[in-house]
Structure formats: C-alpha cells, structure tokens
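User: tokens in, sequence out, please.
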C-alpha cells in the first residue's frame, strides 16, 4: 500500500511539475505554445536593444496578458522607445500592439507535454509622429503565427513560423512583408522542485526573410533580404516569477543593395504570473 501511495504521489508530482513549470516556458526571441491558466494574469516588463551600424535602438515595453480560458489568452504590449541614428536621437511612446494566442492541441504524458498554438498580433499606428519617425512604422501591421512545443522535465524543443504583413504609411511607403522562422532547443541541467529556483539554458536559431519595400507601388532596391541569428539564452524561474534573457548574434546576412548589417540584438524579460 505504501508503495502504491508513493507511486501515485510521484505521478502527481511529475504531472504537477510539467503543468506548473514546464508549461510556463517560451523562447526568448522565437514563439512558443504557452498560454495562461483561466483567469490568470501575466505582467511582463521587457527591455530590447539593437545595434545596426551606427544606429542603436532601445525599447522598454510592458506586456499584459490575461487567460480567457485554459487554452486562450489575449493581451496588449505598450512600448516606450529611444532611437539613436547617427548623432540624432528621439524617444517617446512606440506602436502599441494587441495579441491573442489559442492552443488548439495538447497531449500530456508522464513528465512530458506537447502542444501547438496559433497566434494573431495587430500593431497599431500609435507612434505616428513626423518629428519622431524612428519610434514607429507609421502603419498598421499584422502578424500571423503557428508554434509547436515539446516540454519535458529535462529537454525542451520549440518550432515556430510567423508571417508579418506590413501596411502603408502616410508617405506611401510599405515596408516589405517578413517571414520569421524559429527552431529552439533547451535543457534543464538540474531537475528541481516547484518551490526551488529553476534554470533552463536555451539555444535558438532565428531566421528572417524580408521582401523589398515599396513606395507608391515601386520597389526600393536597398531594402529586404535574409538574416539568420544564433541566439543563446537563459530562462530562470522561482515559483510564479521568471527572468529570461538572450542575445541574437548574426551568422548569415544577405541584404539587398546597400544596407547596414545587424551587429547584435539583446532582450531581457521579467515575468510575473498572478
């Protein structure tokens, strides 16, 4: 009888750890299938920075997410941006976004969860200002995506694909649409309990395939192209609080015409689940 109770306890603990810990993980730069529990709230301040030639952009963001059901979440992103281009800098509110994610498939087994979600994100033209054009795109853009996740106690695997459809701004410029592809692996070197700090190391491969921009129906030569990044990162959690961080290092760039190449991108996210 004691062995039977011990087996049930171990099964319950493993299931709880998969549902309570593994499910809460997503990649740093790519997308994952994580959704909140019903009625849950996630508050996530973020810091993004990018260096491209002599230009440097830094964005402070706040992401708020609500679990509508156990498989459906929605939220808003509110960014504050600072852009430095040459010797000119500008700062202010960026383009806000609304997003939703729906998990349409999930399969649980002992110590393992596999799931898939679809997502939609709409970026509004809230930062449109002729005096600070670097803070926003001046257009309303949409992102459609699909994510798959394999999450066990030790290993993580994610795959994601997104298509970004860009709108046209007031000057007749339409930035080229983009396809974003992500493959991610993660490992938890030390298995821990829910009450203990937990660390997962990540390695992402992020690809971006961009079309040429158009102005009033005519293609612009020095726009669009392909970039591939190798992105090491870390996900550290303690109960309902998490920190994830990573850096994108370009390993392949094939940009059309004369364009500045990306030097690096970095991101830090603080997550708090209520």
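Assistant: Sequence out:
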């Amino acid at each position: 009888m004691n062995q039977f109770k011990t087996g049930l306890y171990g099964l319950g603990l493993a299931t709880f750890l998969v549902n309570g810990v593994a499910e809460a993980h997503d990649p740093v730069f790519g997308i994952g299938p994580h959704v909140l529990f019903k009625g849950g709230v996630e508050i996530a301040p973020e810091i993004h920075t990018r260096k491209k030639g002599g230009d440097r952009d830094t964005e402070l963001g706040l992401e708020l997410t609500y679990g509508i059901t156990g498989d459906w979440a929605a939220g808003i992103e509110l960014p504050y941006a600072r852009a430095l281009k040459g010797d000119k800098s500008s700062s202010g509110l960026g383009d806000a976004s609304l997003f939703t994610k729906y998990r349409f498939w999930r399969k649980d087994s002992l110590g393992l969860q596999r799931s898939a979600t679809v997502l939609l994100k709409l970026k509004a033209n809230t930062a449109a200002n002729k005096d600070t054009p670097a803070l926003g795109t001046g257009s309303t853009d949409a992102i459609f995506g699909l994510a798959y996740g394999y999450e066990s106690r030790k290993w993580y695997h994610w795959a994601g694909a997104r298509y970004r459809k860009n709108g046209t701004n007031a000057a007749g410029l339409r930035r080229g649409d983009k396809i974003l592809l992500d493959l991610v692996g993660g490992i938890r070197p030390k298995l821990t309990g829910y009450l203990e700090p937990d660390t997962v190391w990540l390695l992402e491969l992020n690809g971006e395939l961009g079309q040429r921009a158009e102005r009033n129906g005519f293609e612009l030569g020095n726009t669009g192209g392909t970039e591939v990044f190798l992105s090491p990162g870390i996900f550290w959690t303690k109960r309902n609080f998490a920190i994830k961080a990573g850096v994108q290092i370009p390993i392949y760039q094939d940009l059309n015409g004369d364009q500045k190449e990306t030097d690096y991108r970095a991101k830090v996210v603080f997550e708090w689940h209520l």
